[in-house]
Amino acid sequence: MKKQMKHSRSILSAVMIGLSSSTVMAADYKANPFTLAYEGAITENVEGAVNIHPVTYQLNGIEIAANVYTPESYNADGSYPTIVVAHPNGGVKEQVAGLYAQRLAEAGYITITADAAYQGASGGTPRNVDKPANRIEDIHGMADFISQYPGVNTNQLGLLGICGGGGYSLQAAQTDKRFKALATLSMFNSGLVRRNGYMNSQTDSIQERLQQASDARAQQVAGGEVLYAGDANLTDEQIAQLRFDLYREGYAYYWKSHAHPNSTFKYTMSSLLDLMRFDATNSMDLINQPLLMIAGNRADSLYMTQDAFAKATGTDDKQLFLIDGATHIETYWKPDYVAQAMEQLTHFFDSKL
Fold first, then answer.
1. pLDDT at residue 2 above 70?
2. Is residue 348 scored above 70 in pLDDT?
């Protein structure tokens, strides 16, 4: 009963934060001592409350920057269910991944979210390499680190992947059975989109883009300039003319309302050699853990969640939950939609871990 009351309080607080606003609310990272860029973020650590612990650790010779959240009245000698949270493409731990990590900590979980290697505050050069193998290894690495953290019950380890982190989480959980339950929010299949374009809008230019990526790698290894994709600096008028909701709202979220200096859309052009042959839904039958997939029913990215869900034939314990009225990006910040996602996540992880 006590844990259920904590869940209710945390979900209610998520609803109340900025409830009167119908537009994307500003969350200024500069006003937060931990540079968190989401509404209701922790501003100080208080004894007995949910706290945040910035940490670093080594992963294959690269320093990874992460935030660990501990629940109220945390006791290092205790035993807590724990959730690993993987951030979206272009995102960092201080944005939506941090929001859900904090909300889950408010519900009684230890949580961790880390910047991907080569991205955010984590190390690795050249900057903003975005290879699927790296992103999947980042998730394994978070599990490595948090499994040694005081109070973590490794028999109650769950995984939540958001957007691109959701696609990579599907891949990580296929073989990493330390994860006893898996959830995704607004899952994005990075390889499919880099290959075919969003909603299959670039299928006629696949070979041309592969040649660009090949040329970029050749130039890079020869000591030339590192070339980047996705590095557009668009005006408000140009953003308004973008074809897809995800991109229009994504620019508003990442560049304006919830901007963070470590967050960027750009990635090395040579990364496309790996991205364009990747598909997050390959070998989905290897997932035998309980699976929850959440997406907005108005999200133009919904087709990716539905495709992955249908291919998850290795588990009979799976659920698809659609948030009525939500687009992809709105699940990142809009209080009512965050509250609905959190209600599903807490019920799911409570019952499966």
1. no
2. yes
Which residue has 């839904």 as its token pair?
281
Question: What pLDDT, on the 0 to 100 scale, is given for residue 347?
Answer: 98
DSSP class of 53: E
Angle, in degrees to the nearest 10, between helices 2-16 and 96-106? 150
Point out which residues pair with 56 in neighbouring strands: 65
Q: Which residues pair with 57 in a beta bridge?
A: 64
pLDDT higher than 70, residue 227:
yes
SS3 string, 75-141, reads CCCCCEEEEEEECCCCCCCCCHHHHHHHHHHHCCCEEEEECCCCCCCCCCCCCCCCCHHHHHHHHHH
Task: Kindly report the pTM of this predicted structure.
Answer: 0.93
Fold of 2-352: Rossmann fold (3.40.50)
The rounded distance, in Å, linking the Cα atoms of 158 and 331 is 20
| Contact status, residue 162 vs residue 188, Cβ threshold 8 Å | no
Q: In whole angstroms, what is the distance from residue 131 CA to residue 343 CA? A: 32
The number of C-alpha atoms within 13 Å of 27 and in the hemisphere containing its C-beta is 31
Please list, in sequence order, all residues whose beta carbon lies within 8 angstroms of the beta carbon of residue 212, skipping any fewer than 6 positions away: 269, 272
Q: What SS3 state is found at 322?
A: strand
Q: Which of 199, 158, 190 is nearest to 177 (CA)?
A: 158
Domain boundaries, the chain: 2-352
